[in-house]
């Protein structure tokens, strides 16, 4: 041992646990280019998540105001018989009251914590609010006349939900997951954040495209246009358009939820297949639904906006595939 050198001493168990805790805390912080902790990203993530949670709550409150505002007694008595009122309660009001406490729990958790899994849960809640808005718009045709404030409430609800989606993009961009590693071992954390943001945008765009298409198929029909369709034409429309739409809707919902809560490599292929399927189904409706376009006046505009939303999903999927984290293949000799 050199003169003046300190003898080697093995750290005690307490010192080892303290050092291990310090290393774990350092790993939780987002690392910069040279290992410097970027604390501002966590502050920005907290601010974006707070804005998104507040926007989701405001959207649900606005929708509830439209459903519970002052009704029109004449419209209720004219358009809603006993069966119509019961259907409105089962299809719209009961799901609204059942989902309200679940949404409240998600919003409160998102306001008090910034855990990584909460970003996926809050994104799912925002998409669920948007899908419920589309559901109300599709099946609540006579309800718009019975509730005069419902249409304006739906418009403002869509605006608030759009603000939530924009804020959630900031949440996903500052996601503090484990960084991917380059060939030379350099940590590249931004690629995973970009992948999460791109996949979230793609999943949201696919869901919005399907909701827009459903709105065109379930919007207020033209009685004269439907009267011109014979019994065979109505049966063909139900068998080749409406039935596949209802059968594919839960499958698409499962894919969207999986894409929002995980970034596994196989999900990028599944989401791409779903996006292509939505585009092909829109083309199928446009090709064989000629007489249906006259019976459903809002269907052409819905098809156009569906194509636009599906195009946004394709553009976002390019970012997903560019940041794909495939494991390198191994050579024969190791």
UniProtKB/TrEMBL annotation:
The chain crosses the membrane at residues 46-66, 86-112, 124-144, 150-173, 200-217, 237-261, 268-290, 302-322. Keywords: Membrane, Transmembrane, Transmembrane helix. This is Uncharacterized protein. It comes from Micromonospora chaiyaphumensis.
């Amino acid at each position: 041992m050199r003169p003046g050198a300190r003898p080697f001493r093995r750290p005690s168990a307490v010192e080892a646990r303290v050092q291990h805790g310090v290393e774990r805390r350092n790993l939780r912080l987002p690392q910069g280019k040279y290992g410097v902790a970027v604390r501002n990203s966590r502050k920005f993530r907290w601010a974006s998540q707070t804005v998104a949670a507040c926007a989701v709550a405001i959207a649900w409150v606005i929708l509830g105001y439209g459903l519970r505002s002052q009704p029109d007694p004449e419209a209720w008595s004219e358009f809603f018989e006993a069966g119509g009122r019961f259907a409105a309660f089962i299809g719209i009001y009961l799901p609204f009251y059942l989902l309200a406490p679940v949404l409240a729990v998600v919003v409160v958790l998102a306001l008090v914590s910034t855990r990584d899994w909460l970003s996926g849960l809050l994104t799912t809640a925002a998409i669920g609010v948007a899908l419920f808005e589309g559901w109300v718009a599709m099946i609540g045709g006579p309800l718009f006349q019975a509730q005069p404030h419902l249409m304006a409430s739906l418009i403002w609800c869509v605006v608030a939900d759009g603000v939530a989606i924009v804020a959630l993009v900031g949440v996903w961009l500052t996601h503090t997951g484990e960084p991917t590693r380059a060939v030379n071992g350099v940590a590249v954390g931004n690629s995973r954040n970009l992948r999460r943001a791109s996949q979230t945008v793609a999943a949201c765009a696919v869901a919005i495209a399907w909701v827009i298409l459903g709105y065109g198929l379930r919007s207020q029909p033209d009685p004269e246009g439907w009267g011109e369709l014979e019994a065979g034409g109505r049966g063909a429309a139900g068998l080749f358009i409406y039935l596949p739409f209802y059968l594919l809707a839960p499958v698409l919902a499962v894919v969207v939820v999986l894409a929002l809560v995980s970034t596994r490599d196989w999900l990028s292929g599944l989401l791409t297949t779903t996006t292509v399927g939505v585009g092909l189904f829109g083309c199928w409706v446009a090709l064989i639904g000629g007489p249906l376009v006259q019976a459903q006046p809002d269907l052409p505009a819905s098809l156009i906006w569906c194509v636009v939303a599906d195009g946004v999903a394709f553009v976002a999927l390019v970012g997903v595939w560019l940041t794909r984290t495939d494991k390198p293949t191994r050579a024969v000799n190791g």
